[in-house]
Amino acid sequence: MHDALIFTPDDVDLTRSPLRRGIAEPTYVLGAFNPGFTRLPNGNLLLMVRVAEALREPVRDGHVHAIRWTPEGYVTDAWPLDAVDMTDPRQFEVKGSRHRILALTSLSWLLPVELDPAGERIVAIHYDAAIEPAAGYQCYGVEDARITRIGDTWYMTTCSVGAERHSTTLHSARDGLHYRLDGIVLDHQNKDMILFEGLVGGRFMALTRPLGEVYFAYPPDSPYVGGPSINFAQSPDALHWKPLDAPGLRARKGSQAAMKIGGGTQPVLTRDGWMMIYHGVEARESVGIYRSFWALLDRDDPARILRVEDEVPLLEANPALTARIAHQMYLPTPVVFSTGLVDMGDDYLVASGEADLACRMTRLAKERFA
């Protein structure tokens, strides 16, 4: 296994940030992480990096300030400190509501970073093809791209965050680099929608992970624990999705992923079935410990789960990788969040977000998945 950081907050040129259209206050990159990952037609690789950009001084004059997109440009909103809870460094909660109401201390946009074919060197950073909010349902940002190539089209799902809704949006491209927003495809909170890299029975297939305020209990003797889980959905056109009735992957009691699980890389077809890498979270402090695990799904009926490897992590956070940027760390627990893979012949090259801070590249031998 070979590990390295390929892109960090210091690699982002904020003078070219879309937020310059309206935000005059100094900002910094809270994280450059959780990249969508694919191969381009020219053989190079592409990371679609989530850039979380935050105000240097969000708290001043007795208020905390949040960045928000508008059709006219970017603005900041001021919230009285006594009206919010700032326990989590990534967000604040507005007090006094019967519902949990959040605002973010950063706004995320997506930056295409082109790598050489081996994924070891940055070739170009495409600020001209960056993806930023473009609608009211994205006023607090566009997050966590996942890219899948099917035929001659690249499909990219993103999480769009706004006061109107918290939704999954779809983008598409014919060259893998310049994406068109196709709109909302899941109109509810869903953090980890990923299309399979190929059709199943002539239909698009995807992993989903709906979120809610309440989850119902499994029987006391069940091996599963209630909470966020990975479900499956199918579509005739990648725009209109029907969830499958069969359950998907669920967190198991006693595992290192008992708090919650969610999709990671796009499922790829192997001789044994659809292989996917997913994340599992162990409860610890406010965020939890994130690790990567893997599963194998039947090639003709992906809802039939053939194998789940959730006892020994495939990837764990590696503090040695972030030692040189440790002063920029803000999460209290170790986090690795795998978000894409590319077939390299005898290996898979896996892209991950490390510590919600930087982009990590890991080579894994295919025999590891035998």
From TrEMBL:
Q: Could you state a single Gene Ontology molecular function term?
A: hydrolase activity, acting on glycosyl bonds
Q: Which residues cross the membrane?
A: none
Under Gene3D superfamilies, the record lists: Glycosyl hydrolase domain, family 43
Specify the domain of life of the species encoding this protein: Bacteria
- Whether rRNA-binding counts among this entry's keywords is no
Family according to the record? Belongs to the glycosyl hydrolase 130 family.
Protein name per Swiss-Prot or TrEMBL: Glycosidase
Q: Which organism is it from?
A: Sphingomonas kyungheensis
